[in-house]
Amino acid sequence: MKNIILFVLLSLLIVTFIGCDAKNGTILEYEQLPTDSTLTLYSENEGIYPDTNVLNDPENPYANTAISMDSVWVFNDNCPSPKAKFYLWATMLARITYGEYQYMTAQALHELYTAGGSENARNQAIKAYRATLDHFFDSVTWWQWNPGDPYHAVLLRELAADFLYDPIDNGRLPLYTTPAKALADISEWGYVYNPDTGVVSRRN
């Protein structure tokens, strides 16, 4: 009997995490989240810091949803599509200026482009990776290589540059026709990326 009660309580918690609306307490159902691969932008720089128009986008299911820095990963795990992940992470970025949220927005856009070939997603992914370099150059994310291992800080700028340069090994379509064009853009933005070492530096 205790196990049944525990299961019911856990199920209710999961439903709550999937989406409690901050305005009126309604539940954001899984079925309400987008599953298509078409991205219609509400503004030219939606999802790119410092633009916050994603909060006004009528297609954004998370715009009025209570999401915290802790629960966002639960929401992410319950996203049914890269498009849903884009709205989730762009919403977090619009509310909290944090480098990891810009990088995760870029990842969602890159995944969305890979899934459906959306040119809007491709162009926004490039912008989002660049914003990671421009605004969050020294920001990190934390990786655990194996269960039980300590977490290690990984520079977001190096991850962003790697996905711009050659994302195929990571299961993403290239955002450029050739890696050389990616390097040219990175250089034009004011950075130097060494593919052999994975190091990104600012140009003098």
The DSSP helix count reads 7
- Strand % is 5-15%
Category from helices, strands and their pairing: mainly alpha
Q: How far apart lie the N and C ends?
A: 68 Å
Helix residue percentage: 40-55%
Task: Give a quick account of the main beta sheet: strands, pairing sense, barrel closure.
Answer: 2 strands, antiparallel
Which stretches are low in confidence, meaning pLDDT under 50 for 5 or more residues running? 1-26
Q: In the residues, how many domains can be counted? A: 1
Strand order of the largest sheet: 1-2
**Overall radius of gyration:** 18 Å
How many strands? 4
Question: How does the overall form come out from the CA principal axes?
Answer: globular
Give helix and strand order, one letter per element, not per position: HHHHHEEHHEE
What does the average pLDDT come to?
A: 88
Structural summary, described in words:
It is a single chain. The protein is mainly alpha-helical and 204 residues long. The chain has one domain (47-202). It is 45% helix and 8% strand. The protein contains seven helices and four strands. A hairpin with a 4-residue loop joins strand 3 (191-194) and strand 4. Helix 4 runs antiparallel to helix 5 (119-135). It is globular and about 45 Å long. The N and C termini lie far apart (68 Å).
